[in-house]
Amino acid sequence: MDYFILLTVSGISIGVIYGLIGMGYALIFKATSVVNFAQGEVMMLISYMAFSIASSWSLPFWSLLGVCVVLSGVVGLLIERIFIRPMLGQDVFSTVMVTIGMAVMIRAVVVLIWGADPMVLPTDIGDSGVEFGMVFLYTAQIYAIGFLAVCVFGMWAFLRFSRMGVAMRATAARETTALLMGINVTRVYALAWAIAAVIAGVSGVLLGTIYGLGPDMWTQGLRAFPAVILGGLDSVFGAAISGILIGVLENLSEGYIGHGLKEISGFLVILVVLMIRPYGLFGTPEIERV
Amino acid sequence: MNWFLKGALSAALLTVGSVSATAEPGVTDDMIVLGAVDPLTGPPSLLGKAHSLSLKVWQEDVNARGGINGRKVKIVFEDDGYVPSRSLQSLKKMVDVDDIFGLIGTSGSSQLAAMMPLIDEIGLPSINSMAVNSRHFNPPLNSLFVVGPTYCQEIAAGMTYLVEELGLKDEKYAIAFQDDEFGDDVRCGYLQGVEKYGLNNVLELEFKRGQKDFSAEMLKARAAGVTVLISGGVVAEHSTLLKEAAKNRMKITFLGAHSAHLTPVQALAGSAGDGFYAADYVPALNSLEVTGVAKFMELANTYLSESEVKSLNRYALSGFAGASMFEHAMTQCGEDLTRTCVIEKLQNLNGFETDGLLGPVTFGEGVRHAPTAVMVLQSNAKDSTFSIVSERMEVD
């Protein structure tokens, strides 16, 4: 039983990272119908920026995170303004291709600026952690769990109660009608990209604190992709829950079966789930996938 | 007039004939041009940069000493980004455009494999002092010389140390290895050690290269009661395994191949990076008691910038040793420097010493691999150094 609990808890701790990245995918899709294939790369970019900030000024972790939140928002807005807005009115597929191009470009820029060597993200929480009985969790892992909870609740409240959140849902439901109702659709899009970048940025800082930085960090974006498919491409909440499910499933499959099943277990599950619920566990049935 | 023209023409032809008969590519009266292909960008640039910097140090040093038999050395560096097709492209460019005489930087294992047909075709004297794989010398190419043991040989020697010196015979052994050629080679050494000493192999964990999270793997190892883990991961994977073991409060002895003998491994692992072992065939950069290391560091501090010195690691020592061997062979050839002669002189190396950078190097007729002796190093994470904890061990 102890073994099962340990596998589950450690699965949750990696799953929350998948969940956070997945939320970014889902939010952008919900608002713009675009799958942003550069979500993992945005996460990597912000974590490297955090490295430069942390190396230049010895900021406490929370201050560093605060700076990164602002920075991520700006990066998200810039991406939307420079790469995505010119694509408005174009085929969704073309915009998706732009995100793929952006992903490749960000990878190259990261290597160009920071080099390809693995690096430590110097934060003051470092290797510290807390022991809960037989389970030890790094401080950054605990923060990640807390941040996911805050994000889920925050996004629910935002989409449910705020004017902008309602506008975002309206835009997601039918863009033309939203425009006719006086909603500033471009602002909605910009906000979606900014929020997604903030979530990616925070998860990048936390991931970098736990595992260090490397130019292959973006692959975590790919690993989080099954989560967002499982949850439903347009379900921000579903992505968060599914991220945890995938993390736990990966750990249990490795712990009890092994033989590389960890790598494919997430994809196996989405194959099965999509056969029964093609729109994911929490998604809306009318989704058009690309 | 007719006689004069005929005479002039004959003299000109004779001159051209004699030049083409003696001139070697990349060799002029005052210069020898050599080539080096290294991964200077991409994830393995950590290795490539250090290797190329050591060649730069060697070039400056040789030239400051007056060159080789009066000829200065010039190295043309090419970055292959660790992509085999680019390695071959770089070599073609160096052969056709830069007209190199020999190759002293051969990038990674697969990268060299991609270049081997061309090396063999033109008989280019080449020395591989960076990534050793049995494909490089089995079957041997006449002009390609490989220095250093394979990962398989390294790990097997490291396990000899664990069992014979540390007395870890009755422990529970496991291996975590990545799903590529490197991982397979490490596993080869592990299985040799297990078989040789009849060790208790309780777990073999294969993981995907680039994997970040090892929580399930290390929990599995804990459940199996593993006390000795052989790591077949490179920098980030190795350090994450160490961190996970520490996180799970596992008292475990770690042994890695020479890819673990890097300061970023210590830095990424934090306090968990203290005490692990690495099997290597070159000493640590901080082993200044070794003459070759002290000499190299002195030269590095003379010819490299402060930031370049910081980029050095164990690949700089192996690169410098390889270049020294090439220098020895070229010097032995005298003024009449030819590729054939250098190949012959390299082949004749017998117990060649590199001031302790490598164990004695020996090649021979049809022998193009010198699996130099291995030592075990231990990590001191607090001051980012490694200590030599074993004598050099000959490999099988």
Automatic annotation (TrEMBL), chain A:
InterPro entries: ABC_transp_permease, BCAA_transport_permease. It comes from the Bacteria. CDD domains: TM_PBP1_LivH_like. The keyword Cell membrane applies. Pfam families: BPD_transp_2. Keywords: Amino-acid transport, Cell membrane, Membrane, Transmembrane, Transmembrane helix, Transport. The chain crosses the membrane at residues 6-27, 61-80, 92-115, 135-159, 188-213, 225-249, 261-280. It is a multi-pass membrane protein. It is found in: Cell membrane. GO terms for molecular function: transmembrane transporter activity. Belongs to the binding-protein-dependent transport system permease family. LivHM subfamily. This is Branched-chain amino acid ABC transporter permease. It comes from Litorivita pollutaquae. The lineage of its organism: Bacteria, Pseudomonadati, Pseudomonadota, Alphaproteobacteria, Rhodobacterales.
TrEMBL record, chain B:
Pfam families: Peripla_BP_6. Residues 32-381 form the Leucine-binding protein domain. Belongs to the leucine-binding protein family. Residues 1-23 form the signal peptide. It comes from the Bacteria. This is Branched-chain amino acid ABC transporter substrate-binding protein. The lineage of its organism: Bacteria, Pseudomonadati, Pseudomonadota, Alphaproteobacteria, Rhodobacterales. The keyword Signal applies. Keywords: Signal. CDD domains: PBP1_ABC_ligand_binding-like (cd06343).
